[in-house]
Design brief:
By secondary structure, this protein is α/β, with parallel strands linked by helices. It is 31% helix and 26% strand.
Length: 324
């Protein structure tokens, strides 16, 4: 099969190789997917440059955890009804060496979901990490129906998914954005109201939610925790999946007096049942009319280094997909 891989970490053009490898065979409990589209996430480029200082986890890595394609073979113990079905997958390169930047990938059957008929392969390839993270961030605090949810960074990939999930669950959703250019993205995902982030954000949110918010999805914990706590109702919650400051200070007593709950979310290590619930709910939102992501760049496998560079230095708003 044609595949992309790296055997050392570093800049994309220095370490990524495109060539031929043997076709993989599904092991017991796995399916093999003929990949059509491979989603590129910031985490993929961070692993490639060793941003987390973990070194090379395997001698050779085929990158990308997310993808979409058609199941063409199944391993022992997997229903043959999957053969011929279009699916999207997640976690292909999570604690595993070989991801979706290849003509074939094999993954455990619990890491695939049917691709809804109204959803393209490119959209399916983008769902995994941001979709499951956004779902967990929106739902980890409990029931959403009738609650007010604030999504910080509502135009980002995770934020868009969190907005869509919360809206689909009948929450009132407020999103923060960096500027007017992001407004349409957040509104299209389902936000009821959108305000600009930065100084004065507390007043702007209170103008549309004067009683405060029940739950906050947070993209920059260190930068926003003070504002978040000001906006939380008693017994409210914050679910953070990223931070600008790796060692942030928190307003401890204000959080105590509000009985606030804080969740810190790493998508690779979510419970298996949470990932499967996320896949079901994301599909339901798509089938109900959520438009999904803006696709900014479609890059052939032979140019995967350019795809990684575009993720780190976007030329335009939207997701980057490698077309296999």
């Amino acid at each position: 099969m044609r595949a992309a891989w790296y055997e050392k970490q570093g800049p994309a053009r220095d370490v990524l190789v495109v060539g031929e490898m043997p076709d993989p065979e599904p092991q017991p409990g796995e399916v093999r997917i003929r990949v059509e589209a491979s989603g590129v996430n910031p985490g993929d480029t961070k692993k490639r440059v060793d941003a987390f200082h973990l070194g090379m986890p395997y001698p050779r890595v085929i990158p990308h955890s997310d993808g979409a394609g058609c199941v063409d073979r199944v391993g022992e113990g997997v229903s043959r009804e999957w053969i011929g079905r279009n699916v999207w997958c997640f976690g292909a390169q999570s604690y595993r060496p070989f991801g979706t930047a290849a003509e074939f990938t094999t993954v455990p059957v619990e890491k695939i979901a049917p691709l809804p008929q109204n959803v393209s392969m490119e959209q399916g390839a983008c769902l995994g990490i941001p979709g499951i993270t956004g779902h967990r961030a929106a739902t980890v605090g409990g029931e959403l129906r009738g609650r007010t949810v604030l999504v910080q960074g509502a135009a980002g990939a995770v934020g868009v998914c969190a907005v869509a999930i919360a809206r689909h669950a009948d929450a009132r959703v407020i999103g923060t954005i960096r500027g007017a250019d992001d407004r349409d993205t957040a509104m299209k995902a389902g936000a009821h109201a959108v305000v600009e982030s930065g100084p004065g954000v507390v007043d702007r949110v209170k103008a549309v939610a004067p009683d405060g918010v029940d739950h906050i999805v947070e993209v920059a914990f260190g930068a926003n925790v003070d504002a978040d706590v000001e906006l939380l109702k008693p017994d409210g919650s914050i679910a953070s999946y990223a931070t600008n400051d790796p060692t942030p200070k928190i307003p401890f007593w204000k959080m105590v007096f509000k009985n606030a709950r804080a969740f810190f979310l790493g998508s690779d290590d979510f419970p298996a049942e949470a990932k499967q619930r996320a896949a079901r709910d994301l599909n339901a939102a798509l089938e109900a009319g959520w438009a999904g992501f803006d696709i900014a760049e479609r890059v052939p496998l032979a140019e995967i280094a350019r795809a990684h560079e575009l993720v780190d230095h976007p030329a335009k708003r939207g997701r980057v997909v490698v077309i296999i």
